[in-house]
Specification:
The complex is a heterodimer of chains A (556) and B (391). Chain A is an alpha+beta fold and 556 residues long. Chain A has four domains: 104 residues, Sulfite Reductase Hemoprotein, domain 2 (Alpha-Beta Complex), CATH 3.90.480; 165 residues, Sulfite Reductase Hemoprotein, domain 1 (2-Layer Sandwich); 93 residues, Sulfite Reductase Hemoprotein, domain 2, CATH 3.90.480; 138 residues, Sulfite Reductase Hemoprotein, domain 1. Chain A contains 18 helices and 21 strands. In chain A, strands 16, 17, 18, 19, 20 and 21 form a six-stranded mixed β-sheet that branches. A five-stranded antiparallel β-sheet of chain A has the order 1-2-5-4-13. Chain A is globular, with a radius of gyration of 23 Å. Chain B has 391 residues and is α/β, with parallel strands linked by helices. Helix content of chain B is 31%, strand content 14%. In chain B, strand 9, helix 9 and strand 10 form a beta-alpha-beta unit. Classes of the chains: A alpha+beta (556), B alpha/beta (391). The complex binds iron/sulfur cluster (2 copies).
Chain lengths: 556, 391
């Protein structure tokens, strides 16, 4: 893991002190409400109608046991004893008192954490593959790049007041788990013919009201050119991104309106200037960062206990069937801890659970934890011989739900329960679906399925990239849920298609059930996933399943 | 959650606050209000009259540095002035602002101090409403001591009120009864206004206040024998922000702090560049909008002494990129950011290539030199600089 330097520590401490001062200056009138707003957003403080929300950064989703425990302390001391892990690899506290926020930030700074650039029209906290540095399918570790970008983007003087927010994601695996193509900038680690390190850079992806897949702007960018090239993209966006309409202000619209060719030309022109500022010292810093991400010292021990437990304990077997991912060290595995117990609020964890996770990480995962954008917690380096003990510890904390990648491992945005912008509830639908398929005992049979729910067209639940997406809308005062099918956020990215009229709150769960039953009928065998069947057969059979037997009273 | 809701209007805020704070202890409400950045600056307006001691005491416990606005109409009882001094001292209030009517206006409109006999509304406007309105400039909310039991139009007041869409008026004691007030004063053994013992239940200006006899209405002693029951402070009438002369001279901010503008040779605009006279070219300054394409300036880039980039609003960051590009294209002259730039942005301004900032007097008053100086060490804590060049 990256070790904070004195420079980093001073930076976050100073920043917390500056925010304390800004709060005071707001109270004494030096700052107006309009002026204070972007300043607090840049420090993670978001205002909802009934409460504030503090979004703390977990850069590229990586944290250690001490940090997880500090977050649990914040939840206990200043919040209601739990926290919410977001779809942005961040953590959100929903009820802090505004006047306490400077104290919270100060306590986080002590464990090298902060809330910088988790909101507001600036470069947001960078995200990456939650299995980075561990997955067997990874060819290069994206974390040094993610950390490099984090540092460069922190308090960048030129880009703190952009037209809108700006999100950067990095991956180094053939299996894209970071939704690269749906970010303002997506970086994929690649090597050129000569074996030199670099990036494929895509630009202009995004979800929200107008979902768009990012376009490749450079297929090979040498690593030494990364920062000036990012500066060039940001500079072009800062100058020509629209500021007259917030719904058209993201770079995806800029790219769409000007065309990728023109954007590329402008970026190259700007790049030729920006490049002059860098004399290569940034690459020395990169090398230092990279050294921090050396592989852990793997332990040599027997993995016999793992096989024995699989034979004797059906719960353990089911857990290890679904919640593991191959590690680059064959004796090790990556454990995903589900925050989606059937019927619970997706992404919520109690402070007690957070402390258990911290303990487990310290004891059995080389003191590392990850937060995934699918709102689960990852133990990236678990020796297989320790798995029975890890499983037992998780079970006693109610954290051993064996549903990763299954229908109940769904993503749902906060929806009407927490978000002012919502047009419908989403958490109740999530809970209803999880509970229903648990009753049917079909989850494992259905297999790999991504279901995603958003409470309004802003699409924080990423419904556009769900194999099944659900979008909650409001139609003449009642909630109506629209289904999209065929979305995909991975290396084979596609945007889901709207399948037909929406369903009411009462109808939506039976509708999903009909959809799944149709899939089970249509698939060639158990290895053919929902998405593959959809791509093979198209929407028609699913449409039939959804609408023919159910002409009665769906919401028009 | 991608977008934050727009900032609430005052009336929406008031509705929300009234429901949020219903049934909460007055001290807790006050504590929240004074510490909540979303309220912004809040002042207590106090008459230092018969019951004022309650709120004065409460805020002195929470934060004795809270601004207290005391309107001295210059028609008050000498006892009120003495009581004001006593209380301020006893409670350790550090920011009592005694506000008096404008000299000039009194001279023009009430030379003999007899206006109250002829036209009390005008007198109150001159001595109370207008001075208060001036004193409240810069405050987003103010606290007053009105209570429902005082009768008249006050029976319907809410804890939070929308004052003509300009600010929030807070009546923390709205729901207090007369007994609550008496109890609070007794329990905390607070000093009373000297005239209370003489039968004055509500105390304002000397010419317009008389004692109240047993059984009479509570505020019967104010403007006795007239229909008038409120002095105008509490009526939603508003004087526009007049009186403050427009100050046009700009303030320059640099690493040393505030300085006067030393450039007095005017500015050209880009469109005129082709036909500038030789004298103009000898000391050339140009104003650029933040949408300007820096490469257009290339032919002149060595001849310009000062470039001033407009910041129409602090949240429009285009000026930072323009500065950056001008520097990279080889502009070495003086570079100034002009307009709505916050002290909080000073380090950003400097790091993107500007030398200085030009702000209005209004902004300089609101964000005085010390706030800019706090950000003057712009080279420290700078991630980007570490990446650019080896030292
Ligand atoms: S998708 Fe809509 S409802 Fe859900 S969190 Fe985002 S803005 Fe709120
Ligand atoms: S109360 Fe009487 S003396 Fe005081 S300002 Fe009003 S009219 Fe004038």
């Amino acid at each position: 893991m990256y070790n904070y330097t004195t420079f980093d520590k001073d930076f976050v401490a100073t920043r917390a002190a500056q925010f304390r001062d800004q709060v005071q200056r707001r109270i004494n009138g030096s700052l107006t409400e309009d002026e204070f707003r972007p300043l607090r957003l840049m420090n993670g403080l978001y205002m909802l109608l009934h409460a504030y929300m503090l979004r703390v950064a977990i850069p590229y989703g990586t944290l250690n046991g001490t940090q997880m425990r500090a977050l649990a302390d914040v939840a206990d001391r200043w919040d209601k004893g739990y926290a919410h892990f977001s779809t942005r690899q961040n953590i959100q506290f929903h009820w802090p008192k505004l006047q306490d926020v400077p104290d919270i930030l100060e306590s986080l700074a002590k464990v090298d954490m902060h809330a910088i650039q988790t909101s507001g029209s600036c470069i947001r906290s960078v995200t990456s593959d939650h299995f980075a540095g561990a997955a067997a399918d990874e060819y290069e570790d994206p974390r040094p790049t993610a950390e490099f970008v984090r540092q460069w983007s922190t308090d960048h003087p030129e880009f703190a007041f952009l037209p809108r927010k700006f999100k950067i994601a990095v991956t180094g695996s053939a299996r894209d788990r970071a939704v690269i193509k749906l970010h303002d900038i997506g970086l994929t680690l690649v090597r050129n013919a000569a074996g030199a390190p670099g990036y494929e850079v895509s630009v202009g992806g995004g979800l929200g009201r107008t979902p768009m897949i990012g376009k490749v702007i450079r297929d090979f960018l040498p690593r030494a050119d990364l920062l000036p090239y990012l500066e060039a993209i940001l500079q072009v966006y800062n100058q020509i991104g629209r500021r007259d309409n917030k719904y058209k202000a993201r770079i995806k619209i800029t790219v769409h309106e000007h065309g990728i060719e023109e954007i590329r030309n402008r970026v190259e022109e700007s790049f030729s200037l920006q490049r002059m500022r860098f004399d290569g010292v940034d690459q020395d810093i990169f090398a230092r960062i990279e050294a921090d991400f050396a592989e852990p010292i793997y332990k040599q021990a027997s993995i016999e206990g793992y096989e024995i437990a699989r034979q004797s304990d059906p719960l353990f077997r089911s857990f290890t069937d679904t919640n593991l991912h191959p590690h680059k060290n064959a004796d090790y595995t990556i454990v995903t801890v589900s925050l989606k117990a059937h019927g619970a609020t997706p992404g919520d964890a109690s402070s007690a659970q957070m402390r258990v996770l911290a303990d487990i990480a310290e004891r059995w995962s080389h003191d590392e934890l990850r937060v995934s954008h699918e709102q689960n917690i990852i133990l990236p380096h678990v020796h297989k011989g320790d798995l029975p003990a890890v499983h037992a510890a998780l079970r006693s904390a109610g954290l051993a739900t064996a549903n990763i990648g299954l229908i109940s491992d769904l993503i749902a945005c906060p929806g009407m329960d927490y978000c002012d912008l919502a047009t419908a509830r989403s958490i109740n639908i999530a809970q209803g679906i999880a509970t229903r398929f648990d009753e049917l005992k079909l989850e494992h049979d259905i297999g790999h399925l991504k279901l995603k729910i958003s409470g309004c067209i802003n699409a924080c639940g990423h419904h556009h990239v769900g194999h099944i997406g659900i979008l909650g809308l409001e139609k003449s005062g009642v909630e109506s849920y629209q289904i999209t099918l065929g979305g995909d956020g991975t290396e084979t990215a596609s945007i889901g298609k709207i399948i037909g009229p929406g369903f009411s709150t009462d109808e939506i769960i039976p509708a999903i059930e009909r959809l799944i039953m149709a899939y089970l009928d249509l698939r060639l065998d158990a290895s053919e996933t929902f998405l593959t069947v959809f791509r093979r057969l198209g929407p028609q059979p699913f449409k039939t399943a959804l609408y023919t037997n159910e002409v009665k009273n769906h919401a028009a | 959650m991608p977008l934050e809701n727009p900032i609430l209007s005052i009336s929406e805020r008031v509705t929300e606050l009234n429901s949020r704070y219903r049934n909460q202890k007055t001290e807790d409400v006050l504590r929240d209000i004074l510490k909540d950045p979303l309220f912004g600056p809040v002042a207590l307006v106090s008459s230092f009259g018969a019951e004022a001691v309650v709120l004065l005491h409460m805020i002195s416990v929470i934060d004795p540095a809270t601004p207290v606005i005391f309107i001295d109409t210059e028609m008050l009882f000498p006892q009120t002035l003495a009581y004001q001094k006593d209380l301020a001292e006893k409670f350790g209030l550090t920011d009592v602002r005694r506000i008096t009517p404008s000299r000039e206006a009194v001279f023009q409109r009430d030379t003999d101090n007899l206006l109250h006999l002829a036209d009390r509304d005008s007198c109150c406007a001159l001595r109370k409403t207008e001075p208060l309105e001036r004193a409240l400039i810069g405050f987003d909310a103010w606290i007053g001591g009105r209570k429902r039991f005082q009768g008249g139009v006050r029976v319907a007041i809410e804890m939070f009120e929308n004052e003509a869409d300009t600010r929030i008026k807070i009546n923390p004691l709205a729901h207090w009864s007369r007994e609550d007030v008496a109890d609070y004063i007794t329990v905390n053994t607070l000093p009373r206004h000297p005239l209370v013992a003489k039968g004055y239940l509500s105390i304002g200006c000397a010419p317009c206040t008389t004692p109240v006899s047993a059984g009479e209405d509570y505020r019967a002693g104010r403007w006795r024998g007239e229909e008038k029951t409120e002095c105008g402070i509490h009526l939603a009438s508003h004087v526009p922000n007049s009186g403050e002369p427009e100050v046009n001279t700009a303030v320059i901010v640099n690493d040393e702090g505030f300085a006067p503008d030393d450039w007095d040779r005017g500015y050209s605009v880009f469109e005129d560049m082709d036909d500038l006279s030789e004298t103009q070219k000898s000391a050339l300054a140009i104003d650029l909008p933040n949408t300007f394409d820096a490469t257009d300036l290339l032919p002149w880039i060595d001849q310009i002494d000062l470039i001033r980039v407009e910041f129409p609003v602090f949240s429009d960051g285009r000026g930072f990129s323009l500065a950056q590009r001008l520097r990279l294209l080889g502009y070495h002259g003086r570079l100034r950011a002009k307009g709505h730039v916050l002290a909080d942005q000073y380090a950003m301004v400097r790091r993107s290539g500007f030398d200085e900032v030009e702000i209005s007097h209004e902004l300089a008053n609101r964000q005085p030199q010390s706030q800019w100086s706090a950000r003057a060490a712009w080279q420290t804590h700078n991630y980007q600089q570490k990446f650019y060049q080896s030292t």
